[in-house]
Amino acid sequence: MEPTYRPVISSTGLFTPEESISNEELVTSFNAYVAKFNAENAAAIEAGTVEALAPSSVEFIEKASGIKARHVMAKEPILDIETMAPRWPERSNDEVSVLAEIGVKAAQQALENAGRKAEDVDAVLCAASNMERPYPAMAIEIQQALGIDGFGFDMNVACSSATFGIQTAADYIRAGNARSVLVVSPEITSGHLNWRDRDSHFIFGDVATAVLVEDAAMAPADHWEILGTKLKTVFSNNIRNNFGYLNRAHPETSGAADKLFVQEGRKVFKEVVPMVAKMIIEHAGQIDIDPTGLRRMWLHQANTGMNRLIAHKVLGHEANDDESPTVLDTYGNTSSAGSIIAFHKHSKDLKSGDNGLICSFGAGYSAGTVFVRKA
């Protein structure tokens, strides 16, 4: 009889940058840029050949997103109206890269929380929206830095990368190809954000998370059973970023706005909310779970309005902060890391037998559901 392997979440880890930008600081910087742009282009604006930029406000940002602040890796250059982008010294090929460095810090915390050593881990999946380079894979660099003798690879499904990574790790364990897998999501999303765009400059923040997925037989007593995972993708241009190394073939367009994050926010809201709510409810039925009885939902941290509607459709009532906690207010949208931050910070109080849901959704469109139960 072949052995049966059962994947669980043994632990999580979180790295949070020290620097943070408040909405007040962001608006002051943005409005200074707007005033400078409008003054420099006054004649063209008056002639109608250039459109004047509109200032932003704290009230606008919080109403549109629920975000009040965001952590970043490089605060000063982002707020500098001559730069308005993250900047730090370029590292040599012999130095650990920035993305790997913060991924390692999150992974080390996950290992420590599970009482695990690097030699116990078989694989590293780097699941994130924005990779620092095409190759060598960030996962392999993280693997090397941690001292793991196994394998690693990168995967990108935008904001759903972490949940896709969790299912991939769980599948490896079920198949007997690994017993312990780290899913690491280093997200320096400040780099792909257009800090000069009023409708999106407030959205993203930087962070790194790690999830240790293991066979139940080796997991610590305090772990989460993975009851079921489900993934879904539907192609859409409503969230897009055209930056990539092939842009070098077209240097005349390399600085174009579409090489940064762009989205049709209203269309995303209208299309993603019903898709995700339906997916959650259907998946719950397939694994014999009553969605209205979920103890907690750790949803993707992109927009408070989206989360409120999704939770309402799933639970059948307006969710409170205990049922659907948020970290969006202080972290901003951290892409694939958002739901994992919420799980990391708001899961320790649950009791044995409590059911919960980790859920992601974003560009692609992509969506992932991971139903868990406290052991």
Task: Summarize the helices and strands and which ones pair or pack.
Elements: E1 7-15, E2 19-22, H1 23-40, H2 42-47, H3 58-65, E3 69-72, H4 75-79, H5 98-114, E4 123-127, H6 138-146, E5 151-155, H7 161-174, E6 180-188, E7 206-215, E8 224-233, E9 239-240, E10 262-263, H8 265-286, E11 296-299, H9 304-315, H10 328-331, H11 338-345, E12 355-362, E13 366-374
Parallel strand pairs: 4-5, 4-6, 11-12
Antiparallel strand pairs: 1-7, 1-8, 2-3, 6-7, 8-13, 9-10, 12-13
Helix pairs in contact: 5-6, 8-9
Keywords:
375 residues, alpha+beta, Peroxisomal Thiolase, Chain A, domain 1, 9-stranded mixed β-sheet, two-stranded antiparallel ribbon, 13 strands
Summary of the model, kept short:
The chain has a domain at 224-374: 3-Layer(aba) Sandwich (Peroxisomal Thiolase, Chain A, domain 1), CATH 3.40.47. Helices cover 33% and strands 22% of the residues.
Question: What would you say this structure looks like, in words?
Answer:
The structure is a single chain. With 375 residues, the chain is α+β, with helices and mostly antiparallel strands. The protein has a domain at 224-374: Peroxisomal Thiolase, Chain A, domain 1 (3-Layer(aba) Sandwich). The chain is 33% helix and 22% strand. It has eleven helices and 13 strands. The protein has helices at residues 23-40, 42-47, 58-65, 75-79, 98-114, 138-146, 161-174, 265-286, 304-315, 328-331, 338-345, and strands at residues 7-15, 19-22, 69-72, 123-127, 151-155, 180-188, 206-215, 224-233, 239-240, 262-263, 296-299, 355-362, 366-374. The strands form three sheets. A nine-stranded mixed beta sheet has the order 5-4-6-7-1-8-13-12-11, with helices on both faces. Strands 2-3 form a two-stranded antiparallel ribbon. Strand 12 (355-362) and strand 13 form a beta hairpin. Helix 8 packs parallel to helix 9. The model has no long low-confidence stretch (mean pLDDT 96).
